[in-house]
């Protein structure tokens, strides 16, 4: 994997960060999926940052059987990798993803097994739960995930990106909640997460019930993405820059922030505050606070501080 | 009712959909409320679509006593009507609705009965609960409801539209949470639903506490409506077109989507996913998935597929 | 305090309201903090309205130890003050607030006491809970709070304003969730409330994880603030005008609205409706409804009605 | 109906209460179901008390199709009947109930309609929801329901009694959660309510998973019933006596107590207290408090006080 | 106060514990309420244990106005008192408590102030909320509270004891949920807590709806109390012994246990486990674990270990 | 493993069930742990039933490091094993379990790793969460688990059994919530589950705060166990008999019952009913209902019916 040699010759992260554009070229996916994955290419373009790329460009990054389990393995690994502090996801080739690979998945969905309706249902429920887990691992992973979308993001793609923390896209990107078009209610996350990531319920309902496309401008004005870039290269540079801002800060602060933002989404404000206080009663005892406070008083950038791994 | 004869002469729904503008003229409300209702006019301009029109134009569609119970009857009927797959609501005459008909409702609210404060309270609670149900039936009805607002939408009108699934309006529309002006906290849905349909809590609070008007542009930018049209005719055509997009898709997919979007609103993501998996363990066994998947592979439009009634 | 003499010579509130610009000048903070507070200046520029001003301009209104307890005292007093129906908050001097006064707070946070980790944690939890309460009192106070931000609003400032009901800002305002920069996850409200007051989760995450500044335009488009003004004078006039709209309405209606909006935020729609019905079974028996209804029928302004204190 | 003439000749309730044994004989069900019901016999043995009797003794009070809807009508009527303050339920004939009348219900459950699995599921869900409502009406009815069980209480009978407020039984009574024996998980209330009415989860699980019978002694020691009587006559006298204790007290107090006990079951203590305070802010203004307090100070029995209807 | 001098001459706590009977005599309440309280007598019979005695024996410890606020002050003080690790509550004189002192409280409840029904309601809600707090402070205090009941425990007494952690009683004790007898639904805790402390819902409902007395045996078999003693002296010795068992253990372990037991009561198991893990990630770092583990391995009693204060 | 050869020579399950005492002897654990486990012995004494035995008798079945992960593997396997319909757990040797193996676990708990307090906390939280999962897998496994306790059940043993569905014990059994004795609040399930499996909160608190032993009689009267047996042999026969009652019934009914009982524990009744209806809309379509109903009508035992695997 190219990224390894690059990384080993890199000077310390913080001094290096600026020429992001150059690094983007190192994020090239020309080498294909990374072992042990057949649908994902993993690299580390710079220290502390893991790049996860959907990588079946010839199939428009469609989500086949392998994909659903590789994502789980990949993010479990990232969760445990102390060298990784932030993740950038993107898609190889012409688009982010065409969504479900119907051909490959057909027998799971169209020919479920079981001796009677109840037993088929039982097995289907297991399958759905397993597929839901494919995207929930993104949330369970304590490292923030920045997702960068270019071109089409269809069906399962929307399920995926709504489980990420920060969404960026190119001017030519479009989004489509496609499930009603194949006769089913979206069941791996979109109906649960989309209404909690954008502010217009009327729009959510319209997208989910009519399967119409939403383009970059509406994605921005509705809050689905927080930034739109001219093209993929600019977006990847932007994603890298943003991820760098995250990676250089205290991992105790960053990962605690992600955990508590997610907790708050699903609880009342009072419950969230209670949990937060219980969380921080230990986390505030990190030496990172002292280091950061000192740097702040000395007007140093966070990038000048070295934090222990977490 | 004109709509009946129209409908009986119509060819199959899906082939007919495009000339929506022409159909809009058939949605005319000149014939007045439809028996058995005195405040609502019900029609079926095209197959599978029910048009519910607030129809007391001479009273600016103000909500009188009859309205509060007719809505319940109307939507219970729609819920059970297998021929209906989607609903469009709008108002007859110069505006959507002026809200509560204070004159007609006065003794319910201003002169509640009871021997002492507790007994009056008991009766008032029953009344409020009954009125809340008037709009909750819209949510309980599994068919999606597209509401199209022109002119004023005041007080109870806001309670009504926030219980609908998709909101559209004309350029001249305005919205007003009016209740503080008559000395009460809005109690039939606005305070509960408005914050969950738009993304700015500061705006919600401002509207509810000051009773100021909000015009179409702000309704759009805040996400209350997902589309603004030049005038009522264009809006009704747009509503019809959008409703058509919904009506032609699998009712198993569409109604399951509405049910789960509402469930998700009121639950954590994890709870929502669990419910969704339990829901779809049977719903995925519909033949609609096979039909839709086949159509998708053959590059056919969803409109070309015939789905069983639900 | 100047405001007292002004107030005593004022004619009745409602007739006076219009020349807001003139009144703004009376909201001047030149006199400094008001006894018994050292960090807050309290005044009553017009009847029924309390102005709370962060007032350590020479320290950029940084939040020192005194501030955290004075806020609690101040809002508890306001909650009980029947002469106050609405609150306006703003900052004295060049900016709204620079956030935590690290120097003054250092030993609370950086040198917590305790014999071992558990005991230090126990004490830290008490401290965090106490600080959380500093902003929760704003929500517990039943009178609406309009906050007007100019210049910088950093760290604790964001915690503060997200606990207010309506947010306004000047064109030169900017907002920064600063906590990750000092090595900690924000623990006094931002992570809990910010996602519930604006509509874009991607933006919330970006702000909280990168500590980047957000300027007035994005604050408006994301819904953090509901209005942007050219400069502080215009904003204070606007805040006063808006507060006046609230103060002149029935306090039973206004405070019931605030209470139920907050309840709804943290509950399902069905739970919110149930609570609302139980709330209003007594509140609808206020004479304010009759007074307001009569005024409405006579086409009088709410300002023409005199409501009893609450 | 005999009970009417009895009632009209009765002196005031409170003076009459003691000779309960005599009244029990008037609760005889020999006259059969009461119009308009075919499965229930309704009577009013004494003022303020409604006796609802399962009345298909020749069919061991098995629950047929008519039963499921008659219960709803019956309890909706009771809820609105201001003359009724408390309900006693029991079964006519040799036992309380044999549960589901499989023969009569077979086609609803065994031959549900629908074009495919999803549509059959949709219809089944409607049916289950309707049947759940049959017992939920008991909880929704604000008047307390005392249920008196003799002989067998099987399957649906357990669903029924767990929705009642107070459970009594005879020494020869036995209870059986029968559903697993016919191949299904109990779906009309037992699995939801039984664990919340008795204190041993191990016992609940054992009963529900093995369908074993539980006899009166274990029903008492586990807390399912709060009293065991020697025989049916003694039990009916006891039920009448207990119901009389309830009926003679302030209906504002009694019905508010039932409502809040149910609310508390499903909420945290803090939520329950909040709701309670909101409930009682009006209910404490009843004149019943003054009447009751006065009676208490004068050492009078509650039965000596006349309360307005609710 | 006698207890002070006793305490100063005491040898170390753990060596002293056994002769509890002797100490009980020092818990005598003959000296009356302790300054600054008029309704409570506070003493420290042995190290680490605070004894709170309801002390208006001539008024059967009825709860007057002073009581409701003194309880709050008393338990807030205990919460902050590092020398106290456990609390024993009991009543002076012939009984535990007769409940509400109707005479003293009459104008709060029977003559609430306010210009109209809504304003009276508003004030009543404040009053109820304040009274609820009187017992909630017991739960908020992290030190376990053992309550010992002799004779009558009526009305407010039941509200009080259900907020305590462990309940003991004498053979002659009886309990009565009295509120329906004075025309109101119990609103300061009984309806919320009683169903969560005992296992028979039928019994809870019977007690709350009929106001019948429950005697010691039923209190034990229903689980309201966990031990019954022959008389008050034996009970106080037992309470002291039990409190001693608690006081000699690690306060980090004990108080963390109380906190999490209460959290679990109001949350799902999954939520409770999540909170617990977050709590213990710091608390396990206490040196108390090492000390305790070492003592356990050396077969020493917990009483032989000295733990730092918390 | 002996059980395999036994099983292969067994006639069909249902005909065989009665001579349970004989079978118990086959559950002997003399052969030691079963590969691949070092702490658990797994056998299948009769068809459809898996026996999981804690098997470190020489160490009093203390829970060492291996145990915590073997339990997860074991129950995941059972969950997927279609031949298993019910589980019986018990302990080999003189007692059920002595709880945590402090010696083996010491460095996980007493010497957690990490560069500062926050990082140690982070790692501890992972460890606790992993240990919690060890018992949560019992709940996640859809097959009912009957646990049979003899002798001591200490510390982690209580965490374990409260996660099982049905609890039995011998007359000489005793239970001890031991954690406070080693300086920590129990964090792998007892504080969350114990209060939900027994009916006396006073008793739960007493056990958890004082670490006192509870013997079989109190375990029975408090509802912790639903049956007490004279000795281990009788208990194992009883467990086998009870498990047989479960194993012979429809697995669709049985496992759906377990799932929904657990769901109901953590939700309101209304939520539970909604989930149940959604669950059964497919599960009622099982052929097991028809088979069972037919058998019931023909007065056959459930054991006479052959159900497909699930």
From TrEMBL, chains A, B, C, D, E, F:
One function term, GO molecular function aspect: delta(3,5)-delta(2,4)-dienoyl-CoA isomerase activity
Highest taxon above the source species: Eukaryota
Any Gene Ontology biological process: fatty acid beta-oxidation
Lipid metabolism listed as a keyword: yes
Any Pfam family the entry gives: ECH_1
Pathway the protein takes part in: Lipid metabolism; fatty acid beta-oxidation
Keywords, ordered alphabetically: Acetylation, Fatty acid metabolism, Isomerase, Lipid metabolism, Peroxisome
Entry GO CC: mitochondrion; peroxisome
Reaction catalyzed: (3E,5Z)-octadienoyl-CoA = (2E,4E)-octadienoyl-CoA; (3E,5Z,8Z,11Z,14Z)-eicosapentaenoyl-CoA = (2E,4E,8Z,11Z,14Z)-eicosapentaenoyl-CoA
CDD domains tied to this protein: crotonase-like
Transmembrane regions listed in the UniProt entry: none
SUPFAM superfamilies: ClpP/crotonase
Lipid metabolism among keywords: yes
Subcellular location: Peroxisome
Family per record: Belongs to the enoyl-CoA hydratase/isomerase family.
Protein role: Isomerization of 3-trans,5-cis-dienoyl-CoA to 2-trans,4-trans-dienoyl-CoA.
Name assigned to this protein: Delta(3,5)-Delta(2,4)-dienoyl-CoA isomerase, mitochondrial
Annotated organism of origin: Nothobranchius furzeri (Turquoise killifish)
């Amino acid at each position: 994997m190219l990224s390894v040699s690059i990384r080993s010759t890199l000077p310390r992260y913080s001094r290096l960060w600026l020429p992001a554009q150059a690094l983007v070229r190192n994020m090239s996916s020309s080498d294909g999926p990374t072992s042990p994955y057949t649908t994902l290419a993993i690299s580390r373009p710079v220290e502390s940052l893991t790049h996860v790329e959907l990588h079946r460009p010839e199939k428009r990054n469609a989500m086949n059987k392998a994909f659903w389990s590789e994502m789980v393995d990949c993010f479990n690994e990232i969760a445990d990798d102390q060298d990784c502090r932030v993740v950038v996801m993107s898609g190889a080739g012409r688009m982010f993803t065409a969504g479900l690979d119907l051909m490959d998945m057909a027998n799971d969905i169209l020919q479920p097994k079981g001796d009677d309706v109840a037993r088929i249902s039982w097995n289907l429920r297991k399958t759905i739960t397993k597929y839901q887990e494919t995207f929930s691992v993104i949330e369970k992973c304590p490292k923030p995930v920045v997702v960068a979308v270019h071109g089409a993001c269809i069906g399962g793609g929307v399920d995926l990106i709504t489980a990420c923390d920060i969404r960026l896209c190119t001017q030519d990107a479009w989004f489509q909640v496609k499930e009603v078009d194949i006769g089913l209610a979206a069941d791996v996350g979109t109906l649960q997460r989309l209404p909690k990531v954008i502010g217009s319920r009327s729009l959510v309902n319209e997208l989910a019930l009519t399967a119409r496309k939403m383009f970059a401008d509406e994605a921005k004005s509705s809050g689905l993405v927080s930034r739109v870039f001219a093209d993929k290269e600019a977006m990847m540079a932007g994603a890298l820059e943003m991820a760098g801002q995250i990676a250089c800060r205290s991992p105790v602060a960053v990962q605690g922030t992600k955990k508590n933002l997610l907790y708050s989404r699903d609880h009342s404000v009072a419950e969230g505050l209670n949990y937060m206080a219980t969380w921080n009663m230990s986390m505030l005892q990190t030496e990172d606070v002292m280091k950061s406070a000192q740097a702040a008083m000395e007007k140093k950038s966070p990038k000048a501080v070295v934090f222990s791994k977490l």
